[in-house]
Amino acid sequence: MSSQDELSHEWMDSLGNCSPRKERTGLGEYGHPLGDDCDTLEPSFVDTAQLFPLMETKLYKRRWVMLFVFSCYSMSNAFMWLQYGIISNIFMRFYSIDSLAIDWLSMIYFLTYIPLILPVMWLLDSRGIRDVVVVGSAFNCIGAWIKTSTANSNMFAMTFFGQFVCSVATVYILGIPSRLASLWFGQQEVSTACSIGVLGNQMGIAIGFLVPPILVPNVDDMTELAYHIRIMFYISAGVATFIFVLVIIVFQERPELPPTQAQAQARSIQPDEYSYMASIFRLLRNKPFMLLVVSYGLNVGCFYAISTLLNRMIIEHYPGEEVNAGRIGLTIVIAGMAGSLICGIWLDKTKTYKQTTLVVYVLSLVGMLVYAFTLNLGHLWVVFVTAGVLGFFMTGYLPLGFEFAVELTYPESEGTSSGLLNCSAQIFGIIFTISQGKIIDKWGTLAGNIFLCIFLLIGTVMTGLIKSDLRRQKANQQTEVQTVSPTGSISSVQDYGATSCGRPWQRQS
After folding, report:
1. Major facilitator superfamily (MFS) profile domain: from which residue to which, for each copy (predicted)?
2. Is residue 28 part of a domain?
3. Cα atoms in the Cβ-side hemisphere of radius 13 Å centred on 82
4. How many CB atoms lie within 10 A of CB 199?
5. Distance between alpha carbon 26 and the CA centroid of its chain, in Å?
6. Which of 107, 178, 349, 459 matches a 20 to 30 Å C-alpha distance to 432?
C-alpha cells in the first residue's frame, strides 16, 4: 500500500473515531506530539470545514522552472519596449521623425493593452495560463523578426508595425505573475514568487536601458548606423525565438495537486458556476480594490513616463551622455529589482500588505521629489544616486500592487485583478508620457517632474484610504485548529495543507 493510501485510510479511521463535533489530534509521527483524544471544535470552524473540505496539497520543484521560463519571456518583451526610447535622439535622426513619434514607439505598448486586456483576461480564465503564455511569446517572436527588416531610414512605418506586434505580447505578460504564483507556489512564498515574476520584466527594462546605447553608437555615417541597428534587431529576434521554443517545450498549465488550500478551494468552483462578466462587475464594485486600481495606475504610470522620457531629460542637462542615460535607467531598474525582491520576501514574512504598500508609496513620492530637484545640479553621480533611490521604491511597488490586489479580490481570478491594475497603469502611462513630454518642451524637466509628484501625492492619499481585507489569508487560515498537547496546554496548529480531522498533507517533492 502506498504512503498516500495509508494516509487516506488513517484519515478515514480518524473520521470514524470522531463524532461530528470532534477532531482527532494524533499528529505525533509528523512532529506534532499531541494527544490522541478527540477535542471539541468550535462550531464556526466545523461550518467552514463543511463548506470547504480540506484537500491534499503539494509543492513541486518544477514550479521554479515555470517561473524562470516566464521571467525570460517577460524580459525579452520588456527589452524591446525600451530599445528605441533610450537612444531616442539617434532614432529621431535615423528615421527623420520628431520626439512625439519616437515616444509613440514606447506608448504603443500602453495603447494596445487597453482594448485587448478584457479579451485576454477572458482567454486566461477560459483557456488557461499555458495557452496565454504560448500565444504571447509567439507575438513577441513575430514582432522581433518584423523589425529585423527595418534598419533603413525609410522603414519607420514597418518598424512601428513590428513594435505594435510586440506590444500585443505585453497584454499576455503583465497579468501573469500573480496568477502563476498562486497556481504553483505555497502560502509562505507566493509573494516572493510574484516579485520574481515581475523581476523578469524589470530585468528586460534594465537590459533595454543598458544594451542599445552600447550596440548602437551615435555615429554620423548612416550606413554604419544602419548596420549597428540591424545587429541589435537580429539579437532581439534570436533571443525571442529561443524563448518561444522554450515556452512550447517546458511551460505547463498547473501542478497536478494545488499548492495551498486557497488554490484548492478555487479549483473546486465548477466552470458553470463562474461568469467572467459577473467577476468583472464584482471587482468594479469592490471599493478597496478600485482605490488600489487608481493608485497603482498613478504610480506605475509615473514610472512608464520616466522610463520613456529619461533620455530626453538626461540629454537636456548632460549633452552627449546617451550611454550614461542608459546607465542611469539601468540603475533605476536594478535598484527596483532589489526593492521588488525585498518587498516580496517582507510580505511573505509579515503579511502586512496595506502598511507595506503605503510606506513604499510615500517613499516613492519622496524619491521623486529628490530626483526632480537634483537633476539639474550638473553632477551625474548625484543623478545616479537619486535615480537609484527612486527606482528602489517606485519599481519595487509593482509586485506589492499585484499581491495586495489578489488579497482584496480573492477568490476572483488573479489574472483579472492584475489585468485591471495594468490597464489603469497603461492609461496613466499614456497621459503622463504625453503631458510630461509637452511640459518638458515648454517649461523644462523640473516642471515635468513636479507634475508627476503631484499625482504621486494623490496616489499616496488614496492608498491610505484603502480598507485592508485580506481574503486569501482568511481562506488559507481556515486550517488553523486549536489542539491540546499531552501536557494539557493549548497550542495552535496552522498547516496550510492540513485536513480538518487528521493529517497535514502539505508535501514537497
Report:
1. 65-471
2. no
3. 32
4. 26
5. 41
6. 178
- Residue whose C-alpha is closest to residue 175's, from 332, 401, 333, 397: 401
Q: Name residue 157's amino acid.
A: A
At residue 63, what is the residue type? R
Half-sphere exposure of 289 (CA within 13 A, CB side): 26
Count of domains for the chain: 1
Residue type, 460: T
In a domain, 32, yes or no: no
For residues 260 and 9, which has the higher predicted lDDT (pLDDT)? 260
Q: What's residue 10's pLDDT?
A: 40
The grid coordinates listed for 325 are 542615460
| Cell numbers given for 63 | 514550479
Would residue 2 count as lying in a domain?
A: no
| Ordered DSSP codes for 172-197 | TTTTHHHHHHHHH--TTTHHHHHHHH
Domain range enclosing 343: 61-267+276-472
Q: Does some domain include residue 46?
A: no
What pLDDT shows up at residue 42?
36
pLDDT bucket at 195, cuts 50 / 70 / 90: confident
- Note the pLDDT of residue 26: 33
Whether the predicted model's global pTM rises above the 0.70 cut: no
CATH number of residue 174's parent domain: 1.20.1250.20
| pLDDT beyond 50 at 327 | yes
